[in-house]
Design goal:
Strand order of the largest sheet: 3-2-1-4-7-6-8-5
Pfam families: Glycos_transf_2 (PF00535)
Oligomer: single chain
Organism: Neoroseomonas soli
GO molecular function, one term: glycosyltransferase activity
Distance between the termini: 33 Å
Structural class: alpha/beta
CATH topology of the largest domain: Spore Coat Polysaccharide Biosynthesis Protein SpsA, Chain A
Radius of gyration: 20 Å
Keywords: Glycosyltransferase, Transferase
CATH superfamily of the largest domain: Spore Coat Polysaccharide Biosynthesis Protein SpsA, Chain A
Order of helices and strands: EHEHEHEEHEHEHHEHHHHH
Protein name: Glycosyltransferase family 2 protein
Number of helices: 12
Shape: globular
Largest sheet: 8 strands, mixed
Helix content: 40-55%
Number of strands: 8
């Protein structure tokens, strides 16, 4: 049987220092992709020079800065492969990633195949999340995602108006349209946190997730009570992420926003803990057995 063709799409901005590592991780795969496309999203650094000089086999597209969604859409439109393998320019794949994913690509209704992120907990993830499961939690790491190009095109690609959570928005639309999402728990990608300030990251992702689920709820007529619960839980999880890295002011702000949408005993306790002295916070963490937060800046990439 003929092997399925793969086009790698890498959106890149200010990535001159990381693009080589990302590309090397592509070219060491046991199954080589049919083409590799880097979209220079108006990067002001030497990104294009690095790609052209060190990776002449890579197809380099250039555009004015429009954000990662527009860059991925540009790359997907130029791609010829049956499958689109997305990778951010500051991340890297682990060996065998593509080979493992192609083993799960046989069924015609599979639209997205994703893997785990090295160092991130995945055992609680649903291996085949439908729309309802994805609505509750984004378990697709974009740099691990292998997406059927036909599904991507039918959905209209990613929403370029979103600078964050544009990927999560797409996964929800694909799942709602009936495409299967498959999650492999084993690590397939090494994720690099963004260089922007942690406080800015936390706030930007929290607000982007709110706008994302509000838009999805409007599209698919999700009841307002269900939407409010989802937004409240999103803010609570982001508060846990802020607590984990001792961003106390951000944690309190997220919990207050959460309470605007839904009031629960857990949220009140969390807000009290976030307002308590650091020693009490440390005691609370110890009593909870080192509870690991899932609301972190990298969530939905």
């Amino acid at each position: 049987m003929q092997r399925r063709s793969i086009s790698v799409v890498i959106p890149a901005y200010r990535a001159a220092g990381t693009i080589a590592s990302a590309l090397r991780s592509v070219f060491i795969q046991s199954i080589r992709p049919d083409e590799v496309i880097v979209v220079d999203d108006g990067s002001p650094d030497a990104l294009a020079d690095v790609v052209a000089r060190d990776f002449p086999e890579v197809r380099l597209l250039r555009q004015a800065n429009a954000g990662p969604a527009a860059a991925r859409n540009r790359g997907a439109a130029a791609a010829k492969g049956e499958w689109l393998a997305f990778l951010d320019a500051d991340d890297a794949w682990l060996p065998g990633k593509l080979e493992r994913q192609l083993e799960m690509a046989a069924a015609p209704d599979v639209g997205v195949i994703a893997g785990g992120v090295l160092g991130r907990e995945t055992k609680a993830f649903d291996p085949a999340p439908g729309f309802d499961a994805l609505w509750e939690r984004n378990s697709v790491a974009t740099s691990s995602a292998l997406v059927r190009r036909a599904a991507y095109q039918t959905a209209g690609g990613m929403e370029a108006r979103f600078r964050h959570c544009e990927d999560y928005h797409l996964w929800l639309r694909l799942a709602h349209a009936g495409w299967r999402v498959v999650i492999c728990a084993e690590p397939m990608v090494v994720y690099t946190p963004a260089a922007t300030s942690l406080t800015h990251q936390l706030d930007a992702f929290a607000e982007a997730e709110r706008m994302c689920v509000e838009d999805i709820a409007a599209r698919f007529r999700i009841p307002s009570g269900q939407l409010r619960r989802r937004i409240a839980e999103s803010y609570r999880q982001h508060a846990r992420g802020a607590l984990h890295v001792r961003q106390m002011r951000s944690a309190r702000a997220f919990l207050r926003r959460s309470l605007r949408y839904r009031v629960t005993a857990r949220q009140v306790v969390d807000l009290m803990a976030a307002s308590a002295p650091r020693t009490l916070l440390d005691l609370r963490r110890w009593l909870r057995g080192g509870d690991t937060p899932v609301g972190s800046p990298e969530a939905g990439r």
